[in-house]
């Protein structure tokens, strides 16, 4: 790996990383070393959350944002909807949700509900 503080290298790396998160793209050989390394890292992250691309692309894609939402749902003691996710994805989601459940504080949930109710927001 080259100098990550080099702005050109970083730009190529992040371009490759974001391309690697897209399961429909394949790495091209005519790109820079930074792009290829970033692509590999992005693809590893994608496959860590969604399963191997070779096994097919799921209907719903799990991202860090999705996992953070499930963590928050667990922390607030909210039910989750896992429809549309594959068994592999549900295993990943369950770990994040369980981590949130372990941090669950019922008083925080009641505070949140009070604030939402005060602002006219109702949870179904």
Structure description:
- Helix content is 59%, strand content 0%.
- It has helices at residues 7-20, 33-50, 64-75, 87-102, 106-118.
- The mean pLDDT is 87.
Quick recap:
The protein is mainly α and 124 residues long. It is 59% helix and 0% strand.
**Beta-strand level of the residues, as a percent range?**
under 5%
Please tell me what the overall shape is: elongated
- Radius of gyration equals 19 Å
State the order of secondary-structure elements, H for helix, E for strand. Answer: HHHHH
Helix count, per DSSP?
5
What is the mean pLDDT?
A: 87
| Biggest sheet architecture | none
Structure class:
mainly alpha
Q: How many beta strands in the DSSP annotation?
A: 0
Please describe the structure with a list of short key phrases separated by commas or semicolons.
single chain; mainly alpha; 2 domains
Give the arrangement of secondary structure elements.
Elements: H1 7-20, H2 33-50, H3 64-75, H4 87-102, H5 106-118
């Amino acid at each position: 790996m080259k100098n990550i503080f080099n702005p050109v290298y970083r730009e190529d790396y992040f371009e490759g990383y974001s391309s690697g998160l897209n399961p429909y793209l394949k790495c091209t050989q005519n790109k820079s070393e930074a792009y290829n390394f970033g692509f590999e890292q992005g693809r590893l992250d994608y496959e860590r959350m969604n399963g191997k691309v070779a096994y097919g692309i799921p209907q719903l894609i799990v991202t860090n944002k999705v996992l953070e939402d499930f963590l928050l749902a667990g922390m607030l003691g909210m039910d989750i909807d896992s429809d549309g996710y594959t068994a592999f994805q549900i295993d990943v989601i369950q770990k994040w949700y369980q981590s949130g459940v372990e941090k669950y504080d019922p008083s925080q949930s009641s505070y949140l509900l009070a604030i939402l109710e005060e602002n006219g927001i109702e949870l179904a």
